[in-house]
Amino acid sequence: MEADVNLLIIEDRQEDVALVVNELRRAGIAPLWERVDCEPDFVARLERPDLPDVILANDALPRCGAMRALELLKERKLDIPLIVMADAVDEEAASDRIQRGAADYFVKDRLGRVAAAIDRALEVKRLRGDKQRAEERLEESERQLHLALEAARMITWTWDMRTGKRSSSPPDSTTIWPPGKAPPDLDTFFRSIHPDDCQPLFDRVQQTLKDGSGYSVEFRIPLPTGGVRWVRGQGRVFRDAAGQPTHLAGVSMDITDQKLAERALRESEAKWRSDQEKVQQHLAKLAHVTRLQMMGELMSEVSHEINQPLYAISNFAEASLNRLRSPIEGAGPEILSWLEQIAVQANRAGEIIRRIGRFVRKSPAKLAPADVNRIVRDVVGLLSVDVRLDTVELELQLAESLPPVKVDRIQIEQVLVNLLRNALEAMADNPAARRHLSVHTESLPSGAVRIAVRDNGRGLESGELDRLFEPFFTTKTDGMGMGLSISHSIVEAHGGRLEAVPNPERGMTFQFTLPVASNEAPDDI
Ligand code: ADP
Question: Residue 170: is the preceding peptide bond cis (ω within 30°)?
């Protein structure tokens, strides 16, 4: 039969033990029991792992009384209920034993109570165990909550509105307040935050107390080491049954990193915008140069075309007027007005040309020593803002320690922009993985510096090569055909040469030379 209870009896009288055991059996309890009658045996029994569920101890045993047994249990921190058995009724002794920790007390001649006492003691022990386990679980979950709060850089807090005192969890967290600086009351709290944030926060708390809404505010805490910690505080008000606010509770989160990241982002956005503006301004400047240059080229074409007829009109008008001055029969005022019209038109045409001429008058080139490699890198950087350079394989083979060249930087940049754009457009039909563009710089034995732009695009058809540098020669539907002709004049004006060389396998190389600046360090280094 299985034992209901594992019982240790501290008793020197065998017959009393038999009585107890019989009584328990009578009450339906099957005890597994042992008896000891002296302290060493009791201590030895406590050393064994199968500890008893309940101890029954004779109160007056000379070699190990019930109270001594209780002390030994306490020393060992053993939670085993101990029930005192007394020989005679003694109310005072009974309450003394209970006060000192005995689970129960009964007199031997009232053995009928023993079973109920054991049941109760076991029940109390079980409840105590349950309570302890619940407390352990609570402690564990609090520990986990604290860990989670620390990891999220948060604390939870409560302000008692009646005492003004504060408490927080984790209680000793330094997530929000520097060590030892957690404010103990509301007054200290408002004095501890940044003066600029104090009033808005105070107003929000007052508002919350009035209308019961929650609040979420950001504020700064000045740090003893300098700087501030940014905090987001969220709270709400709790009230008693009468509607009176009893406490404010909420969470505070350290958002300093987020604030710093936001600031860094704002700054880098602003820098990006200003860089972008600079690039746009530079591109606009280049476009302006192109436009002026283009107008210049156009102008020379136009004036060439228009000058002769103008001259003829002017001569004709002159001759007609002379004729009229020595009148012929039939020529009347009609001819005069016609001739006057010719003169007016001729003058007007002349004026138009003069106006355009004034507008596009080429500004003199501003020559200064410059580093060619740097110009190449800058132009590639500029272009990458405008076109998808990442869809081509771009290779820069820039010779080291090139001598500086004497150039108008803007104009040479424009030449490179033209050549690179043309190369990209020539490769537009290549599969993306097969677009190879390279820019190569080198110093020639003649002393000049050569810049070559090489692509593996569609190349040129026969007959096109001879016409490349003619104004208005284009094979593009939306092309102007002015880029190469302008580039050609710019390079020539610098004393260099621009030429187009078909590559042996595929595509074109456009290369130009620039004379070296004598003994001058580049301005742009
Ligand atoms: P646009 O680009 O407006 O046509 P350009 O003077 O820059 O004017 O170029 C003239 C023509 O030269 C282009 O239309 C094109 O047919 C040809 N061309 C220029 N560069 C290349 C190149 N890298 N590969 C093949 N053809 C080119």
Answer: yes
Which residue, judged by its Cα, is nearest atom 18 of ligand 1? 422
Interatomic CA distance for residues 289 and 56, integer angstroms? 111
DSSP β-bridge partners for residue 160: 247
Please name the residue that has the structure tokens 């008008």.
Answer: 317
Q: DSSP of 459-503, one letter per residue? A: ---TTHHHHTTSTT---STT--S-HHHHHHHHHHHTT--EEEEE-
* Mean pLDDT computed over every residue of the chain: 86
Region 466-484: mean pLDDT is: 85
User: If you average pLDDT over residues 488-499, what whole number do you get?
Assistant: 92
List of E strands, 201-339: 215-222, 228-239, 245-254
Cα–Cα distance, 274 to 267 (Å, whole number) = 10
CB 167 within 8 A of CB 158: yes
Range 31-53 average pLDDT: 94
Secondary structure class of 84 (helix, strand, coil): strand
Distance 421 CA to ligand 1 centre (A): 9
Find tokens 């394989």 and name the residue: 393
Q: Residue 450 C-alpha to ligand 1 middle, in angstroms?
A: 20
- Backbone conformation region of residue 447, classed left if phi is above 0, alpha if psi is from -120 to 50, else beta: left
CA of 497 to the centre of ligand 1 (A): 17
Tell me the backbone φ, ψ of residue 184, rounded to 5 degrees.
Answer: -80, -20
The total number of residues written for the chain in this structure: 525
Q: What is the pLDDT of residue 221?
A: 95
State the pTM of this model.
0.44
Q: In angstroms, rounded to a whole number, what is the distance separating the alpha carbons of residues 79 and 53?
A: 9
d(CA 35, CA 8): 6
**343-374, pLDDT tens digit by residue?**
666 665 666 566 555 544 455 567 899 999 99
What is residue 344's three-state secondary structure?
A: helix
The DSSP secondary structure of 138-170, one letter per residue, reads: HHHHHHHHHHHHHHTTEEEEEEETTT-BEEEES
Pocket around ligand 1: residues whose beta carbon is below 6 Å from it?
A: 418, 422-423, 426, 455, 457-460, 468, 473-476, 479-485, 508
> What whole-number distance in Å separates Cα of residue 39 and Cα of residue 64?
5
Share of the chain above pLDDT 90, in %: 48
With 0-12 / 13-18 / 19 or more C-beta atoms within 10 angstroms meaning exposed / middle / buried, residue 9 is buried
DSSP 434: G
Per residue in 91-116, pLDDT tens? 999 999 999 999 999 998 888 889 99
User: Concatenated DSSP letters for 287-307?
Assistant: HHHHHHHHHHHHHHHHHHHHH
Residues 479-483, mean pLDDT to the nearest whole number: 81
The secondary structure of the chain in percent helix, strand, coil, rounded to multiples of 5, reads 50, 20, 30
